[in-house]
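REQUEST ID: PR-0412
SUBMITTED BY: lab tech R.K.
PRIORITY: routine
TASK: structure prediction, single protein chain
INPUT:
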Amino acid sequence: MSTKDSGAVAASKQICSLGYGSVSVASDADLLLRRLVEIHGIDSTRHYWWESLATSRFVRYSTSGNDWTEQIAVFLADMGDPIFLAITDDEPPPWPVLRIEHGSEVATLLSEMHFFEYFVFSQDCARVFFDTHDNVLISSP
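STATUS: complete
OUTPUT:
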């Protein structure tokens, strides 16, 4: 599948059109994703990268209440700014990656969208969390 036909690309375009001035397409996405793979021991040939994290923590969240928002805020607080959002939407790579200058906007931005799978990582690639189709957040380290 080419990225121009993917749901992930459509979601990234929709996010960019929401009017957040702090969101842009990451021009160095390939380099960032390679660093993420190296740092976290990810097998980049796998469809679900979280399955091959060298170390990970799992947090199940409820779709009712504030579980998701609160847990996202905890992860983002440790990442600093800017952060990067890779939109996977249950598709194989390549994935669009967005640079978000203010990580605190991520939960609000994502709540304006229909659900899709994604992962968020810090600029130094030391921290990452994945939101899966099973309502589980998986983070490393």
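NOTES: Residues 3-140 form one domain.
REVIEWED BY: pending
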